[in-house]
């Protein structure tokens, strides 16, 4: 949920991706994980949303004997594509941030080695989408949803939208900003949510209505949420004028927890009928130079200490049964009881064609 920046240096332009996206295949400087293959350094490759409390990370480094190096490598979709393009010379040992919308692409390209992490029995079974092979380990979950600026709707005496269908109504014309489905994980999730809601034949007419209703599309989450959205702290500073944005059910806690003083309720609301469930995974990269360290890091990511630290750092929900989210998080969190879902197989069979169709329909 933060700005995606490339952390690589050697790049070769390649046409690849979630549709017709031109990206770069980038390897870490010097190739592989850690300088000169240092066996005491374990390298985590991630999208830019990775975050952990310093004390929690230091505890892991002290107990394991490994120093963690983090390479933040762009938006989730971009980072996955780079991991695929560099699979013969991986940038690190562990990749974090592939979600269920992109999981089949990563698995089909063979970028991960199998490893059953210690503590995996504590992970709820519904999140183990590669159960039996364990090429990836579930780390967090959440829901992609349309968020709304409470103040805007109160000021205009307008009820906020509650469903996918509401977003096409004239009352919400020129109010919604979303991310590009070909370059952004939230954008892709919103597309898949609409396909789950309206079916193979219904999602395209739905997007035609959205476009006709003044939909705005930007490249990634940070631009949408922190620049265009009028309800976020960043959006207010940037002069954002869109009171509806595709973001997360966990955005309300993020806005409230960092406010000074903390408000009784978050300034951001969630349209509960627009949500799509997301699960994020980490995996041991094939060809990792520090395989042992990578396995230790995966164990750490589903440990109780990390899982309970994660909600207030990355604003996502734990996936383990023994973890409890902090009170400051649950106080403002919005519970989504029935988000749209889609099987990994259906996503794999349709994602690229849907994104190409979406691009032609919405961007051209």
Summarize the structure in words.
The protein is 34% helix and 22% strand. By secondary structure, it is α/β, with parallel strands linked by helices. α6 (203-212) packs parallel to α14 (344-363). The longest helix has 20 residues, at 344-363.
Spell out the key features of this protein.
alpha/beta; disordered N terminus; two-stranded antiparallel sheet; 364 residues
Radius of gyration: 20 Å
- In terms of per-residue confidence, which ranges show pLDDT below 50 for 5 or more consecutive residues? 1-36
Category by helix and strand content: alpha/beta
Order of helices and strands: EEEHEHEHEEHEHHEHHEHEHHHEHH
**What is the overall pLDDT average?**
89
Count of DSSP strands: 12
Distance between the termini: 27 Å
What is this structure, in a nutshell?
The chain has 14 helices and twelve strands. With 364 residues, the chain is of the alpha/beta class.
Secondary structure topology:
Blueprint: E1 10-16, E2 21-27, E3 41-46, H1 54-64, E4 67-72, H2 76-85, E5 94-99, H3 103-108, E6 112-113, E7 137-149, H4 150-155, E8 176-179, H5 185-198, H6 203-212, E9 216-218, H7 221-228, H8 233-238, E10 244-248, H9 251-257, E11 268-285, H10 291-301, H11 304-309, H12 311-314, E12 317-318, H13 327-332, H14 344-363
